[in-house]
Specification:
Elements: E1 4-7, E2 19-20, E3 26-27, H1 32-41, E4 47-51, H2 57-65, E5 70-72, H3 78-89, E6 96-99, H4 106-109, E7 114-117, H5 123-128, E8 131-132, H6 141-152, H7 156-162
Parallel strand pairs: 1-4, 1-6, 4-5, 6-7, 7-8
Antiparallel strand pairs: 2-3
Helix pairs in contact: 1-6
């Protein structure tokens, strides 16, 4: 049973585009359906974390808005963070899922109990993913993955019961 879902950001929670405002500020597009599912999946006992290679105030704000338990930014080796979380929370790899889209996600995907990828992920990522969404990154792929997990673990009905 999955207790923690770890998320990549660019290309997974977002479409992977780099958008700049007139003043040079970064802008990211997040999918409201992904966020809605993350918030409500927490009500059925699934925690969330973000592990990303970049640093962004927007990502920090989004993580706080969705009440995501873990936020790790500026990470070169995501497996180090995975091991840290596993030790801290006394979780096994089988209790953790990860969704990512690019080469820097391959190593962590091989070290969790369940791995996922958006439809437009790198070919090497698609080859090893346990679940491939029918949606692209930033377009509901995270929602697809979380719904797959809840269905697999028998939590989807409880999830729908908790929807207001």
């Amino acid at each position: 049973m999955i207790k923690l879902v770890l998320l990549d950001v660019d290309g997974t929670l977002t479409d992977g585009g780099i958008y700049r405002g007139n003043n040079g500020e970064d802008i990211k597009k997040f999918n409201v359906k992904d966020g809605y599912t993350i918030v409500n999946a927490q009500k059925v006992g699934i925690e969330f974390g973000i592990i990303t290679g970049k640093v962004s105030q927007l990502v920090k704000n989004r993580a706080e808005e969705l009440k995501i338990k873990y936020l790790y930014q500026n990470v070169d080796d995501k497996v180090i963070i995975l091991n840290e979380i596993m030790q801290k929370e006394k979780l096994s790899a089988e209790e953790i899922a990860y969704i990512g889209d690019d080469y820097n996600d391959l190593k962590i995907m091989k070290n969790v109990g369940l791995s996922g990828a958006p439809k437009d992920a790198a070919e090497e990522v698609l080859k090893i993913a346990d679940f491939v969404s029918t949606k692209n990154g930033g377009e509901g792929a995270v929602r697809d993955f979380v719904e797959f997990i809840m269905k697999k673990d028998g939590k989807l009905e409880k999830f729908f019961d908790n929807i207001k």
